[in-house]
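> @MW can you paste both from yesterday?
MW: sure, first one:
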Amino acid sequence: MGTEKFKTVVPLLRCPVCGGTMEEKEHASLVCALGHCFDLAKKGYVNFAPQKRHGPYGAALFESRQRAFRAGFYDMPLTALCEAAARHIKNTQPALLDAGCGEGFYALGLKRYFGASSRVIGFDLEKEAVRIAARGNNDVAWLVADMTRLPLQDACFDAVFNVFSPAAYAEFKRVLKPGGVIVKAVPGERYLIEIRQAAQEKLKSGAYSPARVSEHFKAHWSVLEQFRITETLPVAPEQLKDFLALTPMLFNVDTEKLSTEHIKEITIDVEIMVGASA
């Protein structure tokens, strides 16, 4: 039932209802001292937010994202995130959290990079994303969880990764160990610029800039490093369809009416920030 991988991370978990410690029971459930019970799904994840109203993202979006990831378009950002974290993590057996993991590309990459001795938890509030992430009996512990009320113990992670996702900095600080780091990635100014230019007349917002997110990050963290990576790669027509489906900037745009025949390449432009508690 994919429960073996949870044995190593159970000490990192806490009940989202009462905050109590969790124990794994023989019938494949996690239970706290007050009896709040959360089942380990056969697919290999735990739903710690069964009552939460989930967001607008459907399974099709996460399937499109997974295909884009598997095609290699985001390999460079993944490597950069791992290497940036490794420059600051001192523990040889780190506990790592992918906050807002989506379909799991980055969490799986962290597990490969930091090795079998690392403990990696990926969580997202979107159940469909977590179901996709949990495919294949991989070694990451997957959770459906609310970012504003993490089912995680205080001071237990060496690093929190927050990639293309909203943040809950107070909770991130709570779960980070002393000396732990946050690694955040946001789209750069030229991220998917080819699509943005094709849709510019239909977009409500003007030119995108990561400046506001960067300033907010600096207001909450002591910045250890900040850098930008950019890569432009050829894109096939079927791959372009996935990019049109995966980006939130086109959620209210009729992509069938976009003139995209001239788009033969895609730019992946990412701003990466590494911070510690101020």
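MW: second:
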Amino acid sequence: MSQMPYYEQKDRENTLHLRELLKDMPPFCVDFFRGIEPQTSSRTRVAYAYDLKVFFDFLRRENPVFAKMDSIRDITLPHLDQITVSDLEEYMEYLKYRFNEKNQEVVNKERGIMRKISSLKSFYNYFYRTERLANNPAAIVKLPKLHEKEIIRLDVDEVAMLLDEVENGDSLTKKQRAFHNKTQVRDLALLTLLLGTGIRVSECVGLDITDVDFKNSGIRIHRKGGKEVVVYFGEEVEEALADYMEKRRHLIPAEGHENALFLSLQMKRISVRSVENLVKKYAKIVTPLKKITPHKLRSTYGTSLYQETGDIYLVADVLGHSDVNTTKKHYAALEDSRRRSARNKVRLREEYPEE
């Protein structure tokens, strides 16, 4: 049997994981997840399940009616029809500081609270739309105000310094250099690819050998939702990838990982966590005050592309944003700078030399 593509493997894992999560949730939740399946990814549905479980746990912990129940599986839709806006506002307050099943404190900041309330809104909207709930308090409750955070990205000189460090490893510890000798070619190809294409870390680790097309300078990736697209790369990426591909041909992958492009030292497909760790390792040397992640490398690429082209729609397309407004939000400061620079570009009257 042929090896299943990475994105299909992850989809299968998420689907099976969701089934396990649903075993401990109210039975009507199955209908919700079946109903939203066509519009959502399997990863999103798993995130929704965790968010909803937090809400049901809150009801059992904090609401006297639900506290009498043996488990959250005893919650019914008629019960949820009795929930008010005040209950949901209390839930938002609860989310700031709560305790999980292991009695460990969990702190949610603005974005974490917003995501959990957004999940709850989708949940209530589904059952209200299908006329199984008479009330929809989630539609009325206001989402928390988000304070925009500064977008962290690498400066041009920091990009060069980062790649130099990956290539040479001069500032690594003795222990790190021992690993660096084994992974230098792979790490350089991987980081050059992230910085030179702006692909997501999940798209990067999901690459197979056959996804690389040197003839057309492109890689085939699977975006969120499984959409297949080709992203093109430049000469620097091509050179780094070619060097790694030459080494990759001599590696013997573990069973089931024969097609994977980037391999770990265990000869298995490299994981998202491993890529996050290696980015952190090198970036900490180059720019210790910036918390650089693979997503920050994606922002770095998007910034460079926008500064070079001035085309926000091109940036949105290359980065795989389904809504250009998402891109505009991320690069608003750059857009404003370009607008200011345009103020003297158009001349209304020719200037003539004085006679």
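> thanks! The chain has a mean pLDDT of 88.
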